[in-house]
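Methods — Computational structure assignment.
A single polypeptide chain was analysed. Its primary sequence is given first, followed by the predicted tertiary structure written as structure tokens.
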Amino acid sequence: MSILNQFRQDKRRTHFRENIFENLCDLLNTKKGFGSYPQDLGLDSYVYLGSDKKIILQIIQDVKSCFEKYEKRIGHVEVIPKANGG
């Protein structure tokens, strides 16, 4: 169950996938160390990391580890950056 589900008005979730999706959205929208009890919950600030490549690699690693730790209902997690394109 998502940590933020306890604050939602509709506590009943009828669709398993919807519940997983909402939990993933909560994880991606949580800032690491800001208002969350576990210090590794959520994503960090990437302003001071340096190059774009370094930032992208760190975000990929953070998303993957966050999903693996806090969303056990999904199996293999692979995060692939999508190039900006037309």
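Note: The chain has a mean pLDDT of 79.
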